[in-house]
Amino acid sequence: MDIGKSIRKNREFHGLSRQKLADILEINVSTLGRYETGKRTPSLSTLKSIAKALSIDFDILVSWTDILNSNPDVFDFLERVFYGFYFLEELALLLGTNHNDKSFSSFFECDFSDKTLFLKTANILELTDTQLYNWILLLRIKYDFYQKKESYIKRYDPINDIERLNCMITSNRADLDIQPFDELFYNGISNDNKTKIQNYFEKIYNSSNADLSVVEIHKKNSEAWKECGESWKDYAISIENNPKFLLRSILNYLESHEDFYTTLSIDSYNNDDHNDDVLEYLTDDQINSIIKKVTDLVEYELYKIEKENNEVKK
């Protein structure tokens, strides 16, 4: 989902008119309209202001699709969208029902008796078929663990291992068979897939961490992060104390990223919109021109350092 559509969706979710949000942001409503239709791209500072005005996390606004692709838990996503005490009331209102209604309770508690509100949620969020399927698969696994106490995941902890579970689902690490949607929703996970999930987690728990206590696992992870931090510290010191190292690093980066990204952008001044800061995309030619100039400058600075070193040796 692009930035403009995400702004519009989140604005509508929170019951704000375009004019109301524009007033909060202190910009023209026409400017906000161009943001939402993709005719203009808001600056980073404007995006932060929009996220603050809507009381949502910045990544919800700018990384909607990426979040749902990496974390299939749509309820978790919606809870972040409607952050606050009245989450259930706002979610029910979005779905055109009441949070005290039996159908909504069945939906949120996942008794899998009716798929209507699940499909409606998918339609509102514009979920892909894969995102919808992964969401139901995740809910089914959790349902089996919490409600049915099924043995195929008896060693699995949905709280502490949620990242592993999400990765297994979104990347199909367990090589699960794709079930017909209705079969998965109403009947649950097939026996073959349950076996594959069991084997997947057994393999994980039989790895090097299997016999470690929780404290030892955390200690091991901390040591790994410390080692990573030390390497970055050494890297930073080498840059600070050696300009040539920094320049060479920049040059290597530029040489390995010739085409760069077309999303590289600059601030532009627009009198028609009261100097509202906007990011306009550069063309490929402009980007490559900038890279060429920076490359030439870095190569010249390296030349000067080499020349100074040679003069010192003489």
Keywords:
mainly alpha, 3 strands, 3-stranded antiparallel beta sheet, 17 helices
Give a verbal description of the structure.
This protein is mainly α. 65% of the residues lie in helices and 3% in strands. Residues 258-280 have low confidence and may be disordered. The chain is built from 17 helices and 3 strands. The protein has helices at 3-13, 18-25, 29-36, 44-53, 58-62, 64-70, 74-81, 87-94, 102-109, 116-125, 129-146, 162-170, 181-187, 191-205, 214-241, 243-256, 284-313; strands at 41-42, 265-268, 278-281. It starts with a helix and ends with a helix.
Radius of gyration: 26 Å
Distance between the termini: 61 Å
Q: How much strand?
A: under 5%
Distinct helical segment count: 17
Order of strands side by side in the largest beta sheet?
1-3-2
Structural class: mainly alpha
Major sheet description = 3 strands, antiparallel
| Helicity, as a percent range | 55-70%
Overall number of strands: 3
Mean pLDDT score: 76
Helices and strands, in order, run as HHHEHHHHHHHHHHHHHEEH
Low-confidence stretches: 258-280
**Molecular shape:** flat
In short:
The chain has 314 residues and is mainly alpha-helical. The chain has 17 helices and three strands.
